[in-house]
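Take a careful look at the sequence and tokenised backbone pasted below. I need to know what the token row says about the fold.
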Amino acid sequence: MSGRKRIRYRVGTASWTDPTLLESGFYPPSANTAAARLQYYAAHFDTVEVDSTFYALPSERNSYLWAQRTPEDFLFHIKAFAALTQHPVELRQLPLAVRERLGSEAKPTEPGQRVKVDSGEALELCFSMFAAALSPLERAGKLGCLLFQFPPWFTAREENERYLDYCRAQLPTYRLAIEFRHRSWFGERAEHTLAFLHERGLVHVILDLPAAPSLPATPFASTSDMAYVRLHGRNREAWFGRHERASERFRYLYSNEELTELAQKIRRLRGATEVQVIFNNCYSDYGVRNALTMTKLLREEP
């Protein structure tokens, strides 16, 4: 028998409420409330990634309800609010206390106006409000990673490494998973990037994306005792297209052969005792179908 430590694999999707999933027939007619849908989802999977928190700060009440409606061993991974990852944010999505600290920037001049909360008291308040809202999940032992998905313009340079240190300092007791969307972090710099993350206890997010020169080819490697794999699908045309529904971008159903190959790569990860596998191909029931297959593959003896 091998002396290698047993690895816990958790598999889920990046949403349980996407409109196209609700239309797909995954949920039975009896799952006709928010509570019933989450309970049904949690009966099939042991983890989920929350995407809505990217668009607006979460509420403590929602965190409490999520904790109440899921089994004891369930984990929520929470996508960081856009302001925390240097994305512009719709002014109306910022709490009044944050807008007040922005001063003249927070005066609306047009519908849908966006602002960047990139320094000072306003940004620190966003961090503290984000963390406070998640306290019910943390107390329940159901808070996994905080996913920091940085934009393509967040390139590999010292200024941005300092910002990662700032994020770590703002949330010192949380597990942060870092997703880079610019190629400069990898390639010849990959070893440095992985070492940087490891030294700070940050989780490297492994991406499966469409093959394209503008998208990063992330190393299949872990930098922490937890590994995080995000599977976005491989539909290049849809990824770069314009769509009425955001879910169209992720319209890709992995084949059994692709899933088997991915499962083999996931099994070869070293250094992690727990691996999170999140399907973000959230179009119709594609994500849940692929996640169910991956769960079976990872349960099989290698």
User: Anything to note?
Assistant: Residues 8-299 form a domain with the TIM Barrel fold (CATH 3.20.20.410).
